[in-house]
Amino acid sequence: RRREAAAAEEEGEETPQEKKLRLAKQYLEELRQLVLGGTWAWPAPYGPSAHGAVLGYSQAWGKGRGSPAHIPLSLQVQPPDPASIRVLRGHQLPVTCLVISPDDRFIFSASKDGSLIKCKWEVDSGKRLCVVPGGKKGTEERHMGHASHILCMAISSDGKYLATGDRNKLIMIWDTTTCKRLHIFTGHRDAVSGLSFRKGTHQLYSASHDRCVKVWNVAENAYVETLFGHQDVITGLDSLSRECCVTAGGRDGTVRLWKIPEETQLVFSGHQGSIDCIQLINEEHMVSGADDGSLALWGLTKKKPLALARQAHGVQDAQGLEQPYWISAVAALRNSDLLATGSHSASVKLWKCGEGFRKLEHLCDIPLVGFVNSLKFSSSGDFLVAGIGQEHRLGRWWRIKEAKNSVCIIPLKQRATASGPESPGSS
């Protein structure tokens, strides 16, 4: 009786926030057991996308330690029918970067165009809703758009702000609803090559070819600090909920984890070539790709890759020499085991993180001709978006004439789904 009384007293002292967290953990554990047991009879209130429901809970709980390492959503994916891939045309030059709005309704894309600098697309209809024209270098203050190639972009987790970075050292902040420019950040001394909003905040991280990372407060239009460490141009950047970010260091051969409050960094090495792209899978793991054709899977507690797929996209015959296809883009479906990689090998590849993130398993190829310069999964996991160009986003080493400069929406079919209306990207 004394134990029961103590338990009742302890429960009485539980705050509403603690109760919500306890119930969320309890429900997520039930969902995890359903996933691991192969039971896909999902209750109707959670919508048509089984893995969308799981991801919502895993992302809500994934901020804290002790949450599930990942949800094995790769079990559901089937190779999509090439005829079901939708191609959105409008950019005249190669698409360099893109993002998807948090509600999966819109896609923002940018290219090497001098006129169609930034486009906003509606996922359902494929219509182009907004175009921001560019101008000549030095005229950025007098017109809306960029005056040079946009290399990167990021969208805040509340969908309010869009950030774009260009070769002319500028970062522009946009209102996603009206496509109006709100502010210009200056301070980098070379091309801005990576942008990411910290999840749940308006804190923006930027990376540049000037080898440094800068931190900004977008809501207050303020510069915060600069971090140094890379020995070569930074080619990519990503972040999640924690106050830290990860970067790819080009030819210095390192991936770095930056701990912002401590102003410290962890250095990871494992690629032989220039590391061109990087993305976090969850708060503990990340994936990167390099121009030596290798794909690396990392844990943030180990300095070497947990898994490494060499020549992930095969090899090409370049002037009589066999060279691996460069990995030009990587994407991870957050808090899952599903990855995607792009190159100019005429296909996008889907991968599974197996055996507790210690193995990379190839799942299937999706035919796409051209340089895959950007890849993003929808937050629900129902579709994958690829930015395609005739040239690599960073240069003009090769040109694939038969490629179409476009945005491609690739539906990801599920082996089993609950009854209900189709998801936005399933047509």
Automatic annotation (TrEMBL):
Annotated GO biological processes are: rRNA processing
The UniProt keywords, alphabetically, are: Acetylation, Isopeptide bond, Methylation, Nucleus, Phosphoprotein, Repeat, Ribonucleoprotein, RNA-binding, rRNA processing, Ubl conjugation, WD repeat
Keyword Nucleus among record annotations = yes
Q: Where are the WD repeats?
A: 88-116, 143-184, 185-226, 227-268, 268-308
Q: Which Pfam families does the entry link to?
A: WD40
Location in the cell: Nucleus, Nucleolus
Record-level Gene Ontology MF annotations: U3 snoRNA binding
> Single GO cellular component annotation?
small-subunit processome
The organism's place on the tree of life at top rank: Eukaryota
Q: What is the first-listed, main subcellular location in coarse terms? A: nucleus
| Assembly and oligomerization | Interacts specifically with the U3 small nucleolar RNA (U3 snoRNA). Binds a sub-fragment of the U3 snoRNA surrounding the B/C motif (3UBC). This association with the U3BC RNA is dependent on the binding of a protein called 15.5K to the box B/C motif. The association of the protein with the U3BC RNA was found to be also dependent on a conserved RNA structure that flanks the box B/C motif. Part of the small subunit (SSU) processome, composed of more than 70 proteins and the RNA chaperone small nucleolar RNA (snoRNA) U3.
The entry's function note states:
Component of a nucleolar small nuclear ribonucleoprotein particle (snoRNP) thought to participate in the processing and modification of pre-ribosomal RNA (pre-rRNA). Part of the small subunit (SSU) processome, first precursor of the small eukaryotic ribosomal subunit. During the assembly of the SSU processome in the nucleolus, many ribosome biogenesis factors, an RNA chaperone and ribosomal proteins associate with the nascent pre-rRNA and work in concert to generate RNA folding, modifications, rearrangements and cleavage as well as targeted degradation of pre-ribosomal RNA by the RNA exosome.
Q: Return the similarity comment.
A: Belongs to the WD repeat RRP9 family.
What is the protein name stated in its UniProt record? U3 small nucleolar RNA-interacting protein 2
Lineage of origin: Eukaryota, Metazoa, Chordata, Craniata, Vertebrata
